[in-house]
């Protein structure tokens, strides 16, 4: 079936209005043509609609594989035999991951656009501002976050706020706008979110401090260190967030969804239907030795050799993030039909063993390691979290408090050679302390990059940390990495400046030739 362009999706969305039929936080609203005159008359109806923006359903095509390929394979954190073009930077505009993430981002933006317009119309017609204004602010937050993601991933890109007007005009020659303008637009969205969101809400909903935290990250990306520091400090001083002690549980236990460290997470339900309701990262990361009748595991993405070398001796995040020789989980006791040697090997708990034959419970990934993050285990019946094939109930965290602490430390450093600022040291050393590491007495940019890499490994973010260093430094980082396997080292020599950003999906340019032209200013 022919894939619809993002503009088709946006225009289709503009012809619909969002409504909700249940109160559950992450139920997907029905886009059924309900009018503002007979709906959105109370907070439950409005919040039911905005819950779509958090749901795994519209985020699915990004968080399932595109996030890994772009954020970690390109960054040199993951090895894969599947997304090799991201491993060696031979990415074409026809790549499935590019099209999937582009489509997901603009689809969610389309939802936000429709809701903003609908809620504003409802308010103008006498609807309650007390519940409509926070919902509008939620939409601005999501729109700001996604345009930030878009600007980091593609650089120059379209900005669409009123797909209905686009449809009526009949002009689909929508240009790419300068990256600095896309970033400015995203920041303006977050400022509106900050102004309109409440200071507190139920777990999982964004608040004023989530907006401040994302603004801090955006300011840091743009090297506006003063504002990055100020916004991060506001989040820190709020006292509303903390580092949780159970680091791996943030990613593997549904009971820890929306914990005290999470500022924004994609909300998942433990379900298979509709597809994307559950977290479907599980099989792509899990060791094949943990595949059972309940849980799929085919280790599509594994830790890179270079990533394994990054951990300091004694860093607890290594065993919290990576399975390798000697890693155990006594609670996991997977069993298989007609596999006596396997069952005997696993009878007293899971052992990651690279010497045992694979069919008998051994693990032999290309790098002799597998990923812990977002792998919920072999299934509830075998001592793990509940899993239904490829689906678990764990949220996907996109912004957490550890990021705010490291943003603050880097913003204080502000591009200088080093800093001994007490507050910056306190922020960074809180992250290190949880990992069981000694405190730093001074901080350099290399310290920050190292800490960010190991803290957020396999969370889809490190590529952007490399990218924001600028071409010369990014090239040096990439070409120093071993991107091979345990038996064959591979180093790249083809990294060029045009690879800092991904190409626009080919299908989009076919339907909108303006995307193939030079970007233009959005702000006059």
UniProtKB/TrEMBL annotation:
One of its GO terms (cellular component) is cell outer membrane. It is found in: Cell outer membrane. Residues 306-517 form the RagB/SusD domain. InterPro entries: SusD-like_N (IPR033985), SusD_RagB_dom (IPR012944), TPR-like_helical_dom_sf (IPR011990). It comes from Fibrella rubiginis. Belongs to the SusD family. Keywords: Cell outer membrane, Membrane, Signal. CDD domains: SusD. It comes from the Bacteria. Residues 69-220 form the SusD-like N-terminal domain. It holds the Pfam family SusD-like_3. This is RagB/SusD family nutrient uptake outer membrane protein. Its main location: membrane. Residues 1-22 form the signal peptide.
């Amino acid at each position: 079936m022919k894939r619809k362009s993002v503009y088709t999706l946006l225009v289709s969305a503009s012809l619909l209005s969002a409504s909700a039929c249940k109160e559950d936080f992450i139920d997907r609203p029905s886009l059924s043509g309900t009018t503002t005159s007979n709906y959105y008359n109370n907070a439950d109806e409005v919040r039911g609609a905005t819950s779509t923006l958090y749901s795994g359903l519209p985020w699915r095509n990004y968080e399932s594989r595109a996030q890994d390929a772009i954020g970690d394979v390109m960054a040199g954190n993951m090895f894969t035999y599947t997304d090799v073009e991201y491993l060696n930077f031979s990415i074409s505009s026809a790549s499935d991951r590019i099209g999937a993430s582009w489509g997901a981002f603009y689809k969610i933006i389309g939802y936000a656009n429709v809701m903003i317009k609908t809620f504003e119309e409802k308010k103008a017609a006498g609807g309650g501002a007390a519940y409509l204004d926070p919902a509008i602010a939620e939409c601005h937050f999501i729109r700001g976050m996604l345009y930030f993601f878009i600007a980091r991933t593609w650089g120059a890109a379209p900005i669409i706020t009123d797909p209905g007007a686009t449809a009526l005009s009949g002009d689909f020659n929508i240009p790419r706008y300068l990256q600095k303008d896309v970033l400015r637009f995203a920041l303006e969205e977050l400022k509106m979110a900050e102004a309109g969101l409440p200071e507190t809400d139920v777990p999982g909903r964004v608040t004023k401090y989530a907006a401040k935290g994302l603004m801090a990250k955006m300011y840091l990306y743009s090297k506006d260190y003063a504002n990055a520091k100020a916004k991060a400090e506001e989040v820190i001083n709020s006292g509303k967030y903390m580092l949780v002690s159970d680091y791996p549980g943030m990613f593997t236990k549904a009971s820890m969804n929306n914990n005290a460290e999470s500022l924004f997470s994609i909300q998942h339900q433990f379900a298979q239907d509709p597809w994307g309701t559950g977290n479907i990262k599980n099989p792509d990361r899990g060791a094949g030795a943990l595949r059972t009748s309940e849980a799929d595991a085919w280790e599509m993405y594994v830790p890179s050799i270079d990533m394994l070398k990054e951990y300091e001796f004694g860093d607890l995040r290594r065993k919290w993030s990576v399975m390798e020789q000697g890693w155990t989980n006594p609670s996991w006791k997977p069993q298989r039909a007609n596999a006596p040697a396997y069952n005997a090997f696993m009878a007293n708990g899971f052992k990651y063993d690279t010497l045992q034959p694979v069919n008998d419970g051994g693990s032999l990934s290309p790098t002799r390691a597998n990923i812990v993050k977002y792998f919920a285990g072999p299934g509830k019946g075998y001592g793990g979290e509940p899993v239904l094939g490829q689906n678990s109930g764990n949220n996907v965290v996109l912004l957490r408090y550890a990021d705010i602490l490291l943003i603050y430390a880097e913003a204080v450093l502000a591009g200088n050679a080093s800093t001994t600022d007490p507050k910056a040291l306190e922020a960074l050393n809180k992250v290190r302390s949880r990992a069981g590491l000694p405190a730093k007495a001074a901080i350099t940019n290399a310290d920050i990059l190292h800490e960010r890499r190991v803290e957020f490994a396999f969370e889809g973010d490190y590529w952007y940390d490399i990218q924001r260093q600028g071409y010369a430094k990014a090239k040096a980082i990439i070409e120093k990495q071993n991107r091979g396997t345990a038996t064959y080292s591979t180093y790249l020599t083809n990294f060029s400046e045009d690879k800092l950003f991904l190409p626009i999906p080919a299908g989009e340019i076919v339907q909108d030739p303006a995307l193939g032209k030079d970007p233009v200013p959005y702000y006059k």
